[in-house]
Give the backbone structure.
Amino acid sequence: MKPAKSGAKPGAKPGAKPESRLAMVRRARRINRELAELYPYAHPELDFRNPFELLVATVLSAQTTDLRVNQTTPALFAAYPTPEDMAAAVPEEMEEFIRPTGFFRAKTKSLIGLSVALRDRFGGEVPGRLADLVTLPGVGRKTANVVLGNAFGVPGITVDTHFGRLVRRWKWTEQEDPEKVEAEIAAIFPKSEWTMLSHRVVFHGRRICHARKPACGACPIAPLCPAYGEGETDPEKARKLLKYEMGGQPGQRLSPPADYPGKPAPALGAD
């Protein structure tokens, strides 16, 4: 990992004038460029082979980790490889497959419901339009943007807990509502950057800029961060907080992209 850049002191200076909109936009775009250098391999951290698998995995990812979803879906997709198969599933049997992801009864209801909708209304295919995706049971705007951006190449901003936390720390927005966050961030960046920006910010939130104890002292974008100092600033102590490939640990995907520099995650029961 490249070290934090020297020069300007991290964080806002005491007594400094409020940052102008133009200055914030320039800083935000510079952070995006820095993240692109730091995570050139950023990717969706759910294993999938087609739009249906990504849709199902994203629904399952609510209130659990991508790792747990990735450990669960191989057996699930072996049993129900298509929307038609999943639409015909016996709920109690499907529940046992997805039990490790939590909230398995509600998720089973959503997965069977969306599979029925795909079978009956979309010819067994996942639609490539936001307006259609959000009509599916259990599918909101965040899930739809994940599917559109990563299965169809349609730019979108995915506002999960990591994304929302970081963009507020960086003073790109003060909004809490995900749709308002999405709208304000979309106004800062060109549409072509939306999907990769989402991956980079989430990667950074999972690896360095943690919720409870950010690794400020090991953060390469510290000079650009107004929230510098909320976490550990000592470089040695901060390095011990790094996660996944940054900390020499496995990632969340059992089948990561070829350019991923970390270790594949272990299968269910191997961790």
Observations:
- Confidence is low (pLDDT under 50) at residues 3-9.
